[in-house]
Design goal:
- Two copies of one chain form a homodimer.
- The first copy, chain A, has 380 residues and is of the alpha+beta class.
- The first copy, chain A, has three domains: 2-122, DNA Polymerase III, subunit A, domain 2 (DNA Polymerase III, Chain A, domain 2, Roll); 134-244, Roll (DNA Polymerase III, Chain A, domain 2); 257-373, Proliferating Cell Nuclear Antigen (Box), CATH 3.70.10.10.
- The first copy, chain A, is 18% helix and 43% strand.
- Chain A has helices at residues 7-18, 79-87, 139-150, 206-215, 269-285, 333-342; strands spanning 2-6, 32-38, 41-47, 51-58, 60-61, 64-65, 67-71, 73-78, 93-98, 103-108, 111-116, 134-138, 164-170, 173-179, 183-190, 199-205, 222-227, 231-236, 239-244, 263-268, 290-295, 301-307, 311-317, 321-324, 328-332, 347-352, 359-363, 369-373.
- In chain A, the strands form five sheets. Chain A has a nine-stranded antiparallel sheet with strand order 16-13-14-15-28-27-26-20-24. An eight-stranded antiparallel sheet of chain A has the order 8-2-3-4-19-18-17-12. A five-stranded antiparallel sheet of chain A has the order 7-1-9-10-11.
- In chain A, a hairpin with a 3-residue loop joins strand 14 and strand 15 (183-190).
- In chain A, helix 1 packs antiparallel against helix 2, helix 3 (139-150) packs antiparallel against helix 4 and helix 5 (269-285) runs antiparallel to helix 6 (333-342).
- Strand 11 of chain A pairs antiparallel with strand 23 (311-317) of chain B, so a sheet runs across the interface.
- Chains A, B: Its main location: cytoplasm.
- Chains A, B: It is found in: Cytoplasm.
- Chains A, B: Residues 1-127 form the DNA polymerase III beta sliding clamp N-terminal domain.
């Protein structure tokens, strides 16, 4: 392999695939990034067995020469050093040549690097995915759906299925659900291009979805999603992102969402968030995060928390709309803040079925999201 | 104590004094900030016994009412919670009232806080400092002198005196020295207002100087420095910053700086820094940070590092001026990068007295700084 490549484009692709490098891997070849060059361009691949990312740099783009290929070939280079050194090379052009024993020469300006390469034959082959079930979704919508659910996954590795986000697609309705048994987030979106594709019980690691989100550019990009037997492939521009589907059956969460409410409040999202944030500051010191919400006789509500050592915070809050019974309920304020952080609507509706029943939060201008928080059972 | 105070001004003063709060203190009263109110204004004090910071908020400034005092008094409030909650209060005005048993009520908008206060009588009294030895220095100069020396202090607590920066003042020459026995930084400045003040062997903790730097504003402020027996007091606008002088005698470093050189190089600071940074990336993986500098026959120099596992980086670098003998020397590239980061001059001079003798770095347009790095003794 012998090429000249533009540093900026090489660096961008390296940054993408590097997200699949795990610092904890025990398999030496997976500490590397695989480079494959043919006359069409250069392909970079990295994998931690759970996810694999592949980026393609075309030889030419819009009549701009990006990779000049003198001799095709391939090599695996140590990721950590490769990622950092390429970024810092002095010239806009980088020369690479693989010699005997995968010894790789990298030249840029007056910098000369000899890198110990590894045998590309040892690198795992990416799964061959049948493209039967393909949907297309705007990148920013996908990022949003991830952001609005992934915070509710479980961080407890003893129930691995709950560390993922559940995906269901039927009747063009694409639905994400995440829960850690104490709270739940659910977000649905209608797809234009689902073409009758349907699937259920597809569970994808929340950590993986966060990494995926980082790769999706801010601008208008479409992401193609290919769902196969035990793998999902995301196609984002010139990047392919493979992830395995988590094993197991996701619990049925439909029954825990109440359908009748005894108390409903409509509130300003920002004001509620600020109030709970102040109460949280105190409750955090008690390590419990418990905050109490109580309806008052004058139609307002009171948010409060207390700590025997530090004192008490009491917030009085106006309510835009109040229907139903008086109420006094305690909950984990951190969970509530996590929800309020991702609600984009100016107003929201909170629904209660009593002090021991789940709290439901719904953004006012968006019927596609629903959040649930279980209350604390307190005696006072 | 009963007052109304503007949130912005209160918050700013809290942020200043909070820098003296140590999260590791075992003395309960020192987890608090002391508030003292009289009709002139409000004084906030925090201390971790090593440093104490006091900030004054005047009742009125430029005809703007800042503190409205209804009843003078004082209290100590739990710092961590107080610092965070004040910042997040909903209204621009904050009402505070200390009740029986130092119970403190804080009101802002529709937020009500009850804080468990502590007895201000328990708070340590700040040292009474005689203002015999006072110098005045521009804030940005002081910040610069700290930045250009403090990185060379020792992080090893077994020789506490070396965790400080040595200050000497004589003939209006104010001199900072820091060393960890492997490297040394020295910075001198001529003071206009020293008024014949002189002192020597004043050693101030590097950590303290970093905290001090954060309090000095970017704009043109003068800092008054009062040097007393075992304390130094910095006066910055309305903030008083007390620190104790480290016990012990600072080692005499004058003899380790060579005065005759066998090889001298003049180099571009940025180019040298970039080259060493690339070589460092590799040497870091070997945990040694060893980089080699070698003069070449064509009058250039070569910077290189190698790792048995990863490979080799070789950099060739132009030299603006080269006098003396050929040379091959190894050093800790991290130490060199630390120096190059604080050198503001475009060009610098590096002086050598052989492969086993200290390396001296001097910025070209600044005779007031000198950096020293001991070389590695390597066999190759």
């Amino acid at each position: 392999m012998k090429i000249r490549v533009l540093k900026h484009e090489l660096n961008e692709s390296i940054q993408h695939v590097a997200k699949a490098i795990s610092s904890r891997t025990t398999i030496p070849i997976l500490t590397g990034i695989k480079l494959e060059v043919n006359f069409q361009g250069m392909t970079l691949t990295a994998s931690d067995t759970d996810i694999s990312i592949q980026a393609f740099i075309p030889a030419e783009d819009n009549e701009k020469k990006i990779v000049q290929v003198e001799r095709p070939g391939s090599v695996v280079l140590p990721a950590k050093f490769f990622v950092e050194i390429i970024k810092k090379l002095p010239s806009q052009e980088v020369e690479m040549e693989v010699k005997e024993g995968f010894q790789t020469m990298i030249r840029s300006g007056s910098t000369d690097i000899q890198m110990v390469g590894m045998d590309p034959e040892e690198f795992p082959v990416l799964p061959n995915i049948e493209e039967n079930q393909v949907i297309s979704i705007p990148g920013d919508l996908l990022k949003n759906m991830v952001k609005q659910t992934v915070f509710s996954i479980s961080s407890n590795e003893t129930s691995p299925i709950l560390t993922g986000v559940l995906w269901n697609l039927s009747d063009d309705q694409f639905k994400f659900v995440a829960t850690d048994r104490h709270r739940l987030a659910c977000r649905t979106a209608k797809l234009d291009d689902a073409d009758g594709v349907r699937f259920s019980n597809i569970v994808i690691s929340g950590k993986t979805l966060n990494e995926l989100s980082k790769i999706i550019p801010e601008q208008n990009t479409r992401v193609d999603i290919v769902v196969a037997d035990n793998q999902v492939l995301f196609k984002i521009d010139r990047v392919l992102f493979y992830t395995r589907i988590l094993d197991g059956t996701y619990p049925d969460t439909s029954k825990i969402i109440p359908t009748n409410y005894k108390t409903e409040l409509v509130l300003d999202t920002k004001k509620l968030s600020d109030s709970i944030d102040r109460a949280y500051l105190l409750s955090r010191e008690e390590k419990t995060n418990i905050v109490r919400l109580q309806t008052l006789e004058d139609g307002t509500i009171e948010i409060s928390s207390s700590s025997s050592e530090l004192g008490k915070v009491t917030e009085q809050l106006e309510v835009s709309q109040f229907t139903g019974d008086a109420l006094r309920i305690s909950f984990n304020s951190k969970y509530m803040l996590d929800v309020l952080k991702v609600v984009e609507s100016e107003q929201l509706r909170i629904c209660f079925t009593g002090a021991m029943s789940p709290i439901i939060i719904k953004p006012m201008d968006d019927s596609q999201s629903l959040y649930l928080i279980l209350p604390y059972r307190t005696t006072n």
